[in-house]
Amino acid sequence: MDPLLLAETVERKARQGKPPKAVVPVHLYGQSVDLDPILTICKHYDIPVIEDAAEALGASYKGRAPGTFGKAGVFSFNGNKIITTSGGGMLVSDDGELIAHARKLATQARDPAPHYQHSEIGYNYRMSNVLAGIGRGQLQVLEERVQARRRNFDFYVETLGELPGINFMPESTWGRHTRWLSCITVNEEAFGASREDIRLALEAANIEARPLWKPMHLQPVFAGCECVGGRLAEQLFAQGLCLPSGSNLAEDDLARVVHVIQCVHRIGAGKPLAAMRVPF
Ligand SMILES: Cc1ncc(COP(=O)(O)O)c(C=O)c1O
What pLDDT is stored for residue 267 in this prediction? Predict the structure, then answer.
């Protein structure tokens, strides 16, 4: 989220008498956004900030965990996350009333009565105690997982960093990146092949890699919605690739990924896999 665009937009909407009801900064790929300017703007207009920290468990912003700065923070324990309960997540806030209400809504909004009574509409959103137990157990290995992810990233930088046209997602000065995902951008002209050429070569070697997130404003479901900015996100989507980043990847696995990318650079795009002699 670009704080300058946010400031302009909030100011314009406030002047029109329609300030946003909430602002949701998203901490992407394991790194916190620059929260301070966003919090300052929102505080000025009294707009609650709900942090989407689904991808940033284990990261830091100025020495503190992203997800704990706003009115509330949300985390994901989906199967692809750094620790997982197979599905589900966590809501955090230091507002006790908000948490009590969220807990009630997540538990079918049951009123305190011996019979089932409901004064508002609720949901069946609570995490089962079995999954919560698995999650709590994994919290203890969070730091190890972060270190493993960071080692993956360092390996990619050491082995691919010299290739022309490959750039790595920078770690900001304000905190720690967990490297939940190791992200690169590919400048086709400098590298000699495109992001998609690399992705397809990896796929042919049975290695899954994905483009960076498709921006919200390009999602068909949001066609016609108002959008502010977006050019940078479009460029990142066109050029960006998330490399295999699992906490349990062995050095041989990482070396296979690197080998394919080096081959695409040397041999060029669209050449048969056999030419790459990818070890399985
Ligand atoms: C930034 C972000 N927000 C929200 C979610 C949704 O979390 P969940 O899958 O636990 O619903 C995810 C990923 O799954 C995510 O990466």
Answer: 86
Q: Is 262 exposed, middle or buried (0-12, 13-18, 19+ CB in 10 A)?
A: middle
CA–centroid distance, 270 to ligand 1, in Å, is 33
Q: Is the pLDDT of residue 274 over 60?
A: no
Same domain, 164 and 125: no
Q: How far is the CA of 216 from the centre of ligand 1 (A)?
A: 14
Domain boundary among 96, 117, 139: 139
DSSP 156-198: HHHHHTTSTTEEEPPPPTTS----SSEEEEE-HHHHSS-HHHH
Nearest-atom index, ligand 1, CA of 26: 1
Q: Mean of the pLDDT values across residues 201-220? A: 97
Q: How many CB atoms lie within 10 A of CB 86?
A: 10
Residues 270 and 169 in one domain: yes
Ligand 1 pocket: which of 26, 33, 51, 76 to mutate (most atoms <8 Å of CB)? 76
The residue whose CA is least distant from atom 10 of ligand 1 is: 76
Number of domains comprising the chain: 2
Task: Give the number of the atom of ligand 1 that is nearest the alpha carbon of residue 76.
Answer: 10
- Of 88, 109, 139, the last residue of a domain is 139
Predicted local confidence at residue 270, as pLDDT:
64
Residue 272: predicted pLDDT: 52
Pairing state between β 166-168 and 210-211: unpaired
Q: Ligand 1 pocket check: which of 32, 55, 82 to mutate, most ligand atoms within 8 Å of Cβ?
A: 55
Q: Give the residue numbers spanning the domain of 237.
A: 142-276
pLDDT tops 80 at residue 103: yes
What's the whole-model pTM score? 0.94
Confidence band of 277 (pLDDT split at 50, 70, 90):
low
Q: Are residues 125 and 90 in the same domain?
A: yes
